[in-house]
Amino acid sequence: EPTSVPLDILINLRLILVSGKTKEFVFSPNDSAADIAKHVFDNWPMDWEEEQVSSPHILRLIYQGRFLHGNVTLGALKLPLGRTTVMHLVARETLPEPNSQGQRNREKTGESNCCVIL
């Protein structure tokens, strides 16, 4: 549907799948990562058919190497308005947590978890 919102106050997101396929979507700064995941899920591109997921809740956005939690808005990330921002879109059941047992031992071999310097 036509939108009356000027494009220069919106954020153009280019989402990249693990497979390398990309698609651009337009969002407002008030949209959260969870909103984006749901919108992409509801408007899944036809040429992403092989990557189709069963639920929007496992879609995760990665921006500058960091997983975005569902309640983080684009505005909070200080993304440039009217410009294209690239994010990665991956399917993951859970966000990586320091205390997720089992997985950690495989993924983090040789890396100490005791002291994380922020």
How would you describe this protein?
This protein has helices at 33-42, 103-107, and strands at residues 11-17, 22-27, 59-63, 66-67, 84-91. By secondary structure, the chain is an alpha+beta fold. It has one domain: Phosphatidylinositol 3-kinase Catalytic Subunit, Chain A, domain 1 (Ubiquitin-like (UB roll)). A five-stranded mixed beta sheet has the order 2-1-5-3-4, covered by helices on one side. A hairpin with a 2-residue loop joins strand 3 (59-63) and strand 4. It is globular, with a radius of gyration of 16 Å. It starts with 10 loop residues before the first strand and ends in an 11-residue tail after the last helix.
Short overview:
By secondary structure, the chain is an alpha+beta fold. A hairpin with a 2-residue loop joins strand 3 (59-63) and strand 4.
Using the alpha-carbon principal axes, give the shape. Answer: globular
Mean pLDDT: 84
Structural class: alpha+beta
Estimated radius of gyration: 16 Å
CATH architecture: Roll
The named CATH superfamily: Phosphatidylinositol 3-kinase Catalytic Subunit, Chain A, domain 1
Query: Total helix count?
Result: 2
